[in-house]
Amino acid sequence: MKQNIVKTRLKNGQPVLGVLSNSSDPTVAELCGFSGLDFYMIDGEHSPVTTAQVQDIVRACELTGITPLARVRSNDQKLILQFLDAGVMGIMMPAISTVADAEALVQAVKYPPLGTRGFGPVRANDYLLGTMNQGEAVAFANEQILILPQLEDKEAIDNLDDLLTVEGIDGFVIGPRDLAMSMGYYDGPGHDEVKRTIAGVVEKIRKAGLIAGTTAATGDQARALIDRGVLFCLNSFAGLLKSAAGDFMKGRAA
């Protein structure tokens, strides 16, 4: 069983940067690991990635020292279980808008007595062939797995004060594009009202002693967010590739 390096860094107030990827190819995860990124977020929502492919992607992450996380497509206990059993070290769940949503997520991720996750001798606990017995594995997993609901609509923002009190949540990741559309801005999150809303949400999350996360398109954006207290910054794999390719192609323009 592996220590969750990303969760450890976050608990120590250190920022983490990573990528959200819709690729089903473990090589992509392997390359991201060798690049030095902190985490690789498997996108199980906006992608064709299947639970059967997750295991090999996680293996590639473990090989290169990058922490495997996943965005799961729905708040379904059995689906979440398959991602966790494959060795994913954290779940980012989209469209969490109510306390009931958040509590259901915690129940799915945590083993008893903190939740209702089912236990099996799977690769996440070394098939019970490692150094930990079942009780030790249960306690270790409950401590190590990262739980990050996504705030993506006006209802979630309206319910934020109550969401911040849900036991077992490590933090919240703001989805700026969906939030902007929920607020009536269908062309993106660049509007002042959206920016003010996100800034207010970040401040509330921080005051509650929880981790605030959101997207950053560039290193400069990530630095600015970190200076404001955002510790969990993610870009898309496509966004990183576009940025690097654009920078490289400046050579031709010269």
Q: Tally of extended strands?
A: 8
Average pLDDT number: 97
Number of domains: 1
Shape: globular
- Give the strand line-up of the largest sheet: 1-2-3-4-5-6-7-8
Structural class: alpha/beta
Q: Which percent range fits the helix content?
A: 40-55%
What value does the Rg take, in angstroms? Answer: 18 Å
What's the end-to-end separation, in Å?
A: 50 Å
Main beta sheet, described? 8 strands, parallel, barrel
Specify the CATH architecture: Alpha-Beta Barrel
Q: What is the H/E string?
A: HEHEHEHEHHEHHEHHEHEH
Pfam family, one: HpcH_HpaI
GO molecular function, one term: metal ion binding
GO cellular component, one term: cytoplasm
Keywords: Lyase, Metal-binding
Task: Describe this protein's structure.
The chain has 254 residues and is of the alpha/beta class. It has one domain (5-245): TIM Barrel, CATH 3.20.20. The protein has 12 helices and 8 strands. The protein has helices spanning 5-11, 26-35, 51-64, 77-85, 99-109, 134-144, 154-158, 160-163, 176-182, 192-207, 219-227, 237-253; strands at residues 16-21, 39-44, 67-72, 90-93, 146-151, 171-174, 211-215, 232-236. An 8-stranded parallel beta barrel has the order 1-2-3-4-5-6-7-8, surrounded by 8 helices. The protein is globular. The model has no long low-confidence stretch (mean pLDDT 97).
